[in-house]
TrEMBL record:
Keyword Signal attached: yes
Domain of life of the source: Eukaryota
Organism expressing this protein natively: Ustilago trichophora
Keyword Signal belongs to the record: yes
Signal peptide range in chain numbering: 1-22
Record keywords: Signal
InterPro entries the UniProt entry points to: Mala_s_1-like (IPR054550)
Designated name of the protein: Probable Major allergen Mal f 1
Length: 356
């Protein structure tokens, strides 16, 4: 009898232990959602940042070094994706610009621009090397691009068609078929279309320049539920293209809500799903913007927010992140004035509290 009681006690203890270990962690014991999230990569200077929700990774474009930085939120590990002919010590012919992930989440795309394109003045180059690249996901430090293509040929086609050359490619977005749309910020507003295999590049759309220093689009995003492409900046805050049309044309998006103001200083644009619907998030330092539409991007309401840090970090991007399973929005900057070898070791992402 005593043996049975002892055995029963041990069994009860084992069950109790199992139950205790299976209990969820009390919410008060979870790590707080960071107000500032630091990415510790020396001389990173990211022009763009996107979050891979499936893998809990930040992909960031190392502007000066022409490479992609990959930061793991789970363990703070880091590696780089290198591109032959583009990646350098900071003094190469090309710099890394915009990044994007396709809708399936299995491909990463990167735009590289000529390093002299944005040297406004005598040293500026309109016809230096520009390129576009695709990586398959998941990737690791040994991964190479699945393909890489030059954009110079399609720039020449635009020039033959319009008399002006677009240059300074800065961003791309992918439609539901994995066609890519690459936008140019300088020369004229222009969009090149790249086939999923990278073999066909066409001068998809262009319009007249408005006479400003940066007349082209600075960001672009795809809205899958509407099959609409939206470009940011250049001739107007938002320009929509209805991909259901056999010949999409520019549709100026009517804005209401917060005053967007002038066009100078627009940067990246990303589509982020909030409550099951794609919203657009863009930047124009020191402000971050959220755009919402209920009519397939013929019109949109605007919400804006800022932080003191956005006055000095060269704000370029709004990205999402997930901490404790909760979606949050952060803003990041490239600190352009510090150059390729400024020595900065921390590149903070700052939480934006009132955009979602």
């Amino acid at each position: 009898m005593r043996l049975s009681i002892t055995a029963a006690a041990l069994a009860l203890a084992a069950v109790s232990s199992t139950c205790i270990s299976a209990l969820p962690v009390p919410i008060q014991s979870r790590a707080p959602i960071p107000d500032v999230y630091n990415i510790n990569v020396k001389n990173l200077y990211p022009e763009d940042t996107i979050f891979d929700k499936a893998r809990n990774l930040f992909y960031q474009s190392n502007l000066w070094k022409g490479r992609i930085s990959v930061w793991n939120v789970n363990d703070n590990s880091h590696f780089n994706l290198l591109i032959p002919g583009v990646s350098s010590d900071g003094n190469g012919e090309q710099q890394m610009a915009g990044l994007s992930i396709n809708n399936a989440g299995d491909k990463l795309f990167a735009v590289a621009k000529n390093s002299a394109a944005f040297r406004f003045g005598p040293g500026q180059s309109q016809d230096g090397p520009d390129s576009f690249h695709r990586f398959n996901l998941p990737a690791n430090a040994n991964s190479a691009p699945a393909w890489s293509v030059s954009l110079n040929g399609v720039q020449s086609q635009f020039q033959q068609r319009t008399g002006r050359i677009p240059f300074g490619p800065v961003a791309s977005a992918q439609d539901s078929q994995d066609n890519s749309y690459v936008v140019f910020a300088l020369g004229i507003p222009a969009i090149a279309k790249v086939s999923p295999d990278g073999r066909t590049i066409t001068p998809w759309f262009s319009e007249a320049a408005n006479g400003s220093q940066r007349p082209g689009y600075t960001g672009v995003a795809y809205i899958p539920e509407d099959n609409v492409l939206v470009a940011f900046g250049g001739p107007r805050p938002l320009t929509a293209f209805d991909l259901n049309s056999p010949n999409p044309t520019a549709i100026p998006v009517r804005l209401s809500g917060a005053n967007f103001g002038g066009l100078d200083g627009t940067e990246k644009l990303h589509a982020i799903r909030v409550n099951g619907k794609s919203n657009l998030f863009g930047t124009k330092a020191p402000n971050a913007y959220r755009f919402q539409s209920n009519d397939r991007w013929r019109s949109a309401t605007v919400t804006s927010s800022t932080r003191d840090e956005f006055k000095s970090n060269s704000l370029t991007v709004v990205t999402e992140a997930n901490f404790n399973g909760q979606q949050e929005i952060y803003g990041g900057g490239a600190y352009f004035g510090e150059g390729a070898h400024g020595g900065r070791t921390q590149f903070p992402l700052y939480r934006i509290y009132n955009l979602i």
